[in-house]
């Protein structure tokens, strides 16, 4: 069953948080001249038209990237992220497209870096392939993203970053992310890994934290932005990124911008954010 389509959600508050973290990790990887490997296990299509029926139907981007688009007081870090989105809007004034994780990465990778993008959806995969056909150092594959950690790690570069961003429409995804990390870490313990997670039911999300704690892996940072308090009702109340082996600067970079994101993305005043270690060094 593959019914999830990211086009309904592209550019929402969860994407903003996820893509800011993605950008900061990739920027950090680029501080060293040596090339690295980037694996995006659940890629989506890479670029979204915000006037599409799907995006307009939910209007989620209006409460995400839409709330940052015209701000004149963006913190430096947030401004670099908005600039990446401006670039795929032809530097234009109006917000027409949103970049998925592969397009954020494609703009940051250098010729010595390399990426693999996997996507399973029969309709989304051809769109993804088409969006990246001009990029020499980016390969796309219609395959199960979770299996790519076992299949492609360790990278020949011995430097790498893996983004795992499943839809969680199947409950087993909450366990599969932990299994995938175990597989990856066993092969490549010095890599950086980021897992995106939603908070729909807090108990489900906790399964990931508990599962990761049980692996014994150290240096796991959690970054979360809640738009409203946890609730038993349907719907996502918060989202976050779990980062294993984060760049040492990430914790403070996120602590510096989350107050701004919270007040700008959620002007209603119900936002809460946390940056904390699931397991420290
Ligand atoms: C949340 S979206 C990805 C969004 C994208 N990472 C971004 O930030 O722009 C999740 C994607 O995973 C795809 N998917 C679901 N199960 C998958 C699997 N086992 N392997 C690869 N892709 C899968 C879905 O079709 C969907 O496009």
From TrEMBL:
Does the keyword S-adenosyl-L-methionine feature in the UniProt annotation?
yes
What domain of life? Bacteria
EC annotation from Swiss-Prot or TrEMBL: 2.1.1.266
Q: Which GO terms describe its cellular component?
A: cytosol
Which positions in this protein are listed as binding S-adenosyl-L-methionine?
A: 19, 42, 101, 119, 144-145, 165
Reactions catalysed, semicolon-separated, are: adenosine(2030) in 23S rRNA + S-adenosyl-L-methionine = N(6)-methyladenosine(2030) in 23S rRNA + S-adenosyl-L-homocysteine + H(+)
Location of the active site = 165
GO biological process, alphabetically ordered: rRNA base methylation
What keywords sit in the KW lines?
Methyltransferase, RNA-binding, rRNA processing, S-adenosyl-L-methionine, Transferase
Q: Which InterPro entries would you find in this protein's record? A: RlmJ, SAM-dependent_MTases_sf
The protein's site described by Interaction with substrate rRNA is found at 4
Q: Does the keyword Membrane apply?
A: no
Q: Which GO terms describe its molecular function?
A: 23S rRNA (adenine(2030)-N(6))-methyltransferase activity; RNA binding
What Pfam families does its record include? RsmJ
Tell me, in a sentence or two, what this protein's role is.
Specifically methylates the adenine in position 2030 of 23S rRNA.
Quaternary arrangement and interactors, per the entry? Monomer.
- Member of which family? Belongs to the RlmJ family.
This protein is called Ribosomal RNA large subunit methyltransferase J
Source species: Rodentibacter rarus
Q: What is the lineage of its organism?
A: Bacteria, Pseudomonadati, Pseudomonadota, Gammaproteobacteria, Pasteurellales
